[in-house]
Write a structure and sequence with these properties.
Elements: E1 2-3, E2 9-10, H1 16-22, H2 26-42, H3 55-59, E3 84-91, E4 97-103, E5 109-113, E6 117-118, E7 121-127, E8 132-137, E9 140-145, E10 151-153, H4 156-168, H5 171-183, H6 193-209, H7 221-229
Antiparallel strand pairs: 1-2, 3-4, 4-5, 6-7, 7-8, 8-9, 9-10
């Protein structure tokens, strides 16, 4: 209540707020109405939060696709190279390398030069120093050793490293490596002189013991007597 002059009170104007709204600028009222409609549309009728409006954003994968599961390592028993044996490493004209392979399952043998493919098997690279060959079939690569016959499948990371290393080796590098190998002195023989003769005689006797083709070396009386004593050879019949 407001007090007038003379002590009388008069009621306050309760319509002031309504009159203020009615006399508000029309563009302002329109903006408030639009804002209220937008807020009402964003709030679900149930009053609970929902992720439907975020689905289109998630479907676009703004953070990228989830990482693929790492492939399971291939064991030597599962490798395509498990039936192959590296039988030879040969140098070809121009500094390249040719390898000999044997399919232990079929008994078939074949040769491959670097970059060549036979029966879906490609020779990626070969090394005289490491005595090995890197083969590829499809998406799999494996290393085969010459001496031990070991087979080692390569992981995807190792495959990339091998391919990069192979591309870096140019013709000049291969030629240089070949010249270096030629300039090295030949290895010294393991046996010489009397030691070599003794080794050949012992090897000759071992071949006869095992029934293998003998060497073109005549048996001495001592060798013959020892083999007769062992029961490997029958005794010589006396001359008539």
């Amino acid at each position: 209540m407001a007090r007038e002059a003379g002590g009388r009170q008069r009621p306050l104007n309760r319509q002031a707020d309504g009159d203020s709204i009615r006399h508000m600028n029309p563009p302002v009222m329109l903006s408030l109405g639009i804002a209220a409609a937008v807020l009402a549309a964003r709030v679900p009728a149930t009053g609970t939060a929902t992720f439907d409006r975020y689905r289109i954003i998630l479907e676009r994968k703004p953070f990228g696709a989830p990482p693929r599961e790492a492939p399971r390592p291939i064991s030597p028993a599962e490798s395509f190279a498990r039936h192959l044996r590296l039988s030879a490493l040969l140098e070809v004209e121009g500094g390249g390398i040719k390898v000999g392979l044997v399919d232990k399952k079929s008994g078939k043998s074949f040769f491959l030069t670097e970059g060549e493919t036979v029966e879906e098997i490609e020779l990626v690279s070969a090394s005289f120093d490491e005595e090995e060959a890197v083969l590829r079939k499809g998406n799999e690569m494996a290393v085969i050793k010459l001496e031990s016959g070991e087979i080692r499948p390569l992981s995807p990371a190792e495959q990339r490293q091998r391919l990069i290393r192979t591309r870096r080796i140019s013709y000049r590098d291969r030629r240089r490596q070949r010249e270096e190998r030629r300039s090295q002195p030949p290895p010294q023989p393991k046996y010489t002189g009397e030691e070599l003769e003794r080794h050949l005689r012992e090897y000759q006797m071992e071949c006869i013991r095992q029934g293998l083709p003998p060497l073109p070396i005549p048996l001495t009386p001592e060798m013959d007597a020892q083999l007769v004593a062992e029961g490997v050879l029958p005794p010589l019949e006396p001359e008539q």
